[in-house]
Amino acid sequence: MTDPSPAKKPLELLTATLPREQIGPFLLLGVDKDATLQEIEAAWRQRVEWVEQGQLGVSVDDLNWAKEILLDADRRILADLGSLNPDTSDGQLRQMLAVQGSDEWERPHWPIRDVPLPDAPSIPAEWLDDRPADESSLHIPDVPLVIPGLERILAESRQQPVDPWDP
Predict the structure, then answer these.
(1) Burial of 40 (0-12, 13-18, 19+ CB in 10 A)
(2) 110: which DSSP letter?
(3) Which domains, from first to last, does the chain contain?
(4) How far apart are CA 67 and CA 3, in angstroms?
(5) Would you write out the chain's pLDDT as a tens digit for each of its 167 residues?
(6) pTM, full prediction
(7) Cα–Cα 20 to 30 A to 130, which of 14, 65, 85, 143?
């Protein structure tokens, strides 16, 4: 993922209607969190090329925004905290995937078929419940207007000093 070469085809991330701030610049540009400035520039150039060819469903404005964020060190840290990219900055998840198995998505080796769902079985009428009779047999308890112990809890909370830094 760190070397965007022209031979690779773009992997389009379907993000529905999430705002770019929530998707994050790392996923928009397809770079790791520890990517160098050269890797960010190369990924940005490749993504812009894909957008111009109609191969990527992201706007150039979003790509420019992602590049600006990643080139600024302070904004990059904030984006790292608030984006969808789950990996840590030192790539612990990527390392675990390398040890445990491939981090590339594999196509299933079996043929995918569209099989129609079977029809739902019919249910005999005598199996169905009589809803009005069931509702009338339920006993709904009265809800008290006063919560027991609420006055004591409020009085105790007023006596204690409030410290916003104490969890």
Answers:
(1) buried
(2) S
(3) 20-100 (1.10.287)
(4) 16
(5) 455 555 566 555 555 567 777 778 888 888 888 788 999 999 999 999 988 888 877 888 989 998 998 898 888 888 877 766 666 666 666 677 677 665 555 555 666 667 787 888 888 877 777 777 777 777 777 877 777 777 788 888 778 777 777 75
(6) 0.47
(7) 143
How many CA atoms does the CB half-sphere of 57 hold within 13 Å? 7
Tokens of 95: 């390392």
Residue with tokens 């675990």: 96
Separation CA 1–CA 31 (nearest Å): 6
Give the residue carrying structure tokens 């005598």.
126
